[in-house]
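ARCHIVE RECORD
Type: protein–small molecule complex
Small molecule: magnesium ion
Source of inputs: curated submission
Record status: active
Notes field left blank by submitter.
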Amino acid sequence: MIKGLIFDLDGVIVNTDTYHYEAWKSVANKYSIQIDKSINENLKGLSRRDSWNLIMEIGNIQLSDEETNIVLETKNNLYRKKLKNLSSDNLLLGVENFLQELNHKEFKLAIGSSSRNAKDILNYLNLSSYFDSIIDGSMVKKLKPSPDIFIKAAKNLGLKPIHCIVFEDSLSGVKAAKDGGFKVISVGNKELLDVADYHIDNFLDFKLDQYATVS
Ligand SMILES: [Mg+2]
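STRUCTURE (tokenized, with ligand):
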């Protein structure tokens, strides 16, 4: 019996992906590291620090902790500046309708996102009121692929993982949810089809009972 829905934010509710991409490109450029879309794909779901570690690995460079911290802050500032341009154009297809039409007495909703900017992003998009709980990366010790974010979200909803579906677009997120004992619907990325319980390209025409019939 599903009673809770937990959503990753980036790539599931909203695409701020191009903003991350542009911001990473710009900081990596200063160190003559070229980032392309396939590299960007590997950054999805990673923390800011882990993303930069991967970029440094690709560029074969090493920075002092101090310089690394400056890079991380610069990237976040660039990204946050871009977030102010967010509008409904950045939402995943059909997601607002899906949130609107859910029976909010039947289901509790949470966000489980590694992004420390999650609350700001939801506010910019006027979506905060749909969610009973918003868990971001600053509220847990271990980020995805650890299940901590989703477990905390379920706990805040007063539900057991087995009674919740997690919506995820990254491999680390799908793994995190599976490890935590959640049902998982993968969103967008077809490569996750095999690891998730169910897959949707986006929320257009998606109804929860579609999932219930196959689960
Ligand atoms: Mg994501």
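CURATOR ANNOTATION: The radius of gyration is 17 Å.
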